[in-house]
Amino acid sequence: MHYGRTMREAEGQRTFTGTGVGRGVVAGPVLRMPEPLPEPSADPFGGDVTLEQARAVAALSATRVDLEERARRAGGHAQDVLEAQAVMADDPALAEDVATRIAAGRSAERAVFEALATVQQVLFNLGEPMAARATDVGDVSQRVIARLLGRPVPGPPESDEPFVLVAADLAPADAALLDLDRVLALVTSGGSATSHTAILAREQSLIAVVGVAGAEQFEDGEIVLVDAGAGVVTGSPTKREVRSARSTAAERVRVSPRSPGELADGTPVPLLANLGSVASAAGALALGAEGVGLFRTELLFLDRAEAPGVAEQADRYGELLAAFPGKRVVVRVFDAGADKPLAFLRPDDAEPNPALGVRGIRALRAHDEVLRDQLTALALAQDAHEADLWVMAPMIADLPEAAAFATLAKRLGLRTVGAMIEVPSSALLAAQILGVADFVSIGTNDLTQYTLAADRLLGPLGPYQDPWHPAVLRLVKLVGDAGLASGRSIGVCGEAAADPALAVVLVGLGATSLSVTPAALGDVRSELRRYTLEAARAMAMDALSAASPAEARAAALA
Ligand code: PEP
Ligand code: MG
Questions:
Q1: Which helix (H) or strand (E) holds 238?
Q2: Is the C-alpha dihedral spanning 492, 494, 498, 504 positive or negative?
Q3: Rounded to whole angstroms, what are the CA distances from 405 to 126, 240, 347, 378, 435?
Q4: Of 90, 157, 445, 467, which cross-links 64 as Cys (Cβ 3.0–4.6 Å)?
């Protein structure tokens, strides 16, 4: 893969590449995330055991209070993550384990470290998606130990001057509460375009380049130029470079009125929003969303042990539709499994590879009553509101699956029914699927993960999660060609559509609408205006014949 760095030592400069989030350009001094706390000593503890146990209990409960407070301030998705961490810190089983370790001769710091390291190990051993939570446990451990040591909790540095934050990666507790008046940009050595950090950065419109191998070499105070559009971080840039990067960025965003998405020749490309809550509808509309291209219904019910009932669901979907009268709203039925586990759609048996397991439409077909209730609720909401409701299923693999879903949804009263194209098999068979689906929407996050056989949750495989890969683009072209032949709507709702240059290529490959996180709408809208359909098709053709994601990008933009 292409990630890496190019040294320009003769000029005293260092240029590193990664995955840019957004299109902004900024220059400023580096401040690095502080090193984690050192591992507490395992030497036998000789003091008063009861006092030491009380100290540990106090630190655990103070950490819980602190995390609850952070959760309240964060709101949104981050709030759920922080609340889960608060519960972890206050877990009676953890307190008991820590007390036992202290009684066996450990200091409070060491006991907390060992007890939470054990929990982390258990999570790692369970594999994804639980392994991803190990980072959150590690963060709780650092917070409790810092409190016991009377040291500041390791977290983003504070400064009166604006700075570029350089880190290996960010814990959710840190990413959610960055001081956006001070943090000019974020550069991380870990992460990919779909990692938690990138998604949070995008949500907050923070300029970021993630997956930058070598980022740790930047020193505190060193001036760097962060160009998210190009995915490049340059150390000690010249004034000319800063000027030129800034003027390119200004050119990119000059055309950003809240007008409909279209190409330079007037070809319409509706720009829709990816949403996970009804509360985010107003923000999306304010940023010019022409509707919703992906509503992730599973995010509404992540904390439920039992499936929500028809009436409750109909109310929630009704609230969403009421926010978009006369506009298209594409709702996805529950996509449970792998990175989005739902207790009420759990596979019957443990799965060694959940991404290749009973997820998406497979889980729904195994729990037919849950699917029927959801479709019934959607039909009720559809009939009570003026929005144009489209309903689609995740992880469709082939024609029989698409046909079974379309037949059931139509029988239950839904008017417009489609399939997500996220598995290579369904891209290869798109022409067949479009025979029974009213529309398709390409989920490039999963399509990339399955095309490259690289789990999207695994940090070290982040470089594979690059939708510029020509193999992914070729599959998108197959879907686009099938769309052209059938005259049906071909949406793209994965993170790929939020990369402005790639958005143009996707339209060149046959996408007829794009759905992105609301913060990306302005950048994508202005980039589309720079190209005619003919130019977008030419860029797409150039990208298709490349041999790697970097080559595809370079060829498209040449
Ligand atoms: C995708 O896979 O691209 C997609 C949009 O769905 P999700 O990210 O929710 O799996
Ligand atoms: Mg998906």
A1: none
A2: negative
A3: 32, 57, 20, 14, 13
A4: 90
> Residue 153: exposed, middle, or buried by beta-carbon count in 10 A (0-12, 13-18, 19+)?
middle
Q: Is 298 in the pocket of ligand 1 (CB under 6 A)?
A: no
Atom of ligand 1 nearest to the CA of 444: 3
CA nearest to 205, candidates 443, 529, 517, 528: 517
- Quickly count: other Cβ atoms within 10 Å of residue 547's Cβ: 10
* Ligand 1 atom with least separation from CA of 495: 3
> Could you give the maximum distance between any two Cα atoms of the chain, in Å?
79
Residue 196 known to be catalytic: yes
Using alpha carbons, list the distances in angstroms from residue 296 to 233, 276, 404, 446, 497: 33, 5, 21, 14, 16
Q: At what angle do helices 108-126 and 49-74 cross, to 10 degrees?
A: 50
Index of the ligand 1 atom closest to the CA of residue 422? 2
Helices (H), 429-493: 430-433, 444-451, 470-486
- Does 493 qualify as catalytic in the annotation? yes
DSSP E strand boundaries for 328-452? 328-332, 388-393, 416-421, 439-442
State the pTM of this model.
Answer: 0.65
Q: pLDDT tens across 455-487, in order?
A: 887 777 888 999 999 999 999 999 999 999 999
Q: How big is the CA angle at 496 (ends 433 and 532), to the nearest 5 degrees?
A: 85
Gap between the Cα atoms of 287 and 281, Å rounded: 10
Could you give the dihedral angle defined by the CA atoms of residues 428, 433, 438 and 443, in that order, rounded to the nearest 10 degrees? -40
- Atom 1 (ligand 1): residue with closest C-alpha? 443
Asked if 220 and 165 touch (Cβ cutoff 8 Å), the reply is no
Whose alpha carbon is nearest atom 9 of ligand 1?
296
pLDDT score for 249: 64
Phi, psi of 296 (to 5 degrees): -85, 90
3-state SS, residue 264: coil
Q: Ligand 1 mean position to 341 CA, how many Å?
A: 14
Given a cut of 50, the residues of the chain with pLDDT beneath it are: 1-11, 255-257
* Residue (of 185, 15, 20, 45) closest to 110 by Cα position: 45
> Is residue 152 helix, strand or coil?
coil
Taking each continuous run of H as one helix and of E as one strand, the counts in the chain are 21, 17
- The number of beta carbons lying within 10 Å of the beta carbon of residue 512 is 19
In angstroms, the CA 161 to CA 293 distance is 39
H helix intervals, 385-454: 399-411, 424-428, 430-433, 444-451
Q: What are phi and psi of 534, to 5 degrees?
A: -60, -45
333-375 pLDDT tens trace: 999 988 788 989 988 888 889 999 999 999 999 999 999 999 9
The DSSP element (H or E) to which 459 belongs, if any, is: none
Helix (H, G, I), strand (E, B) or coil at 445: helix
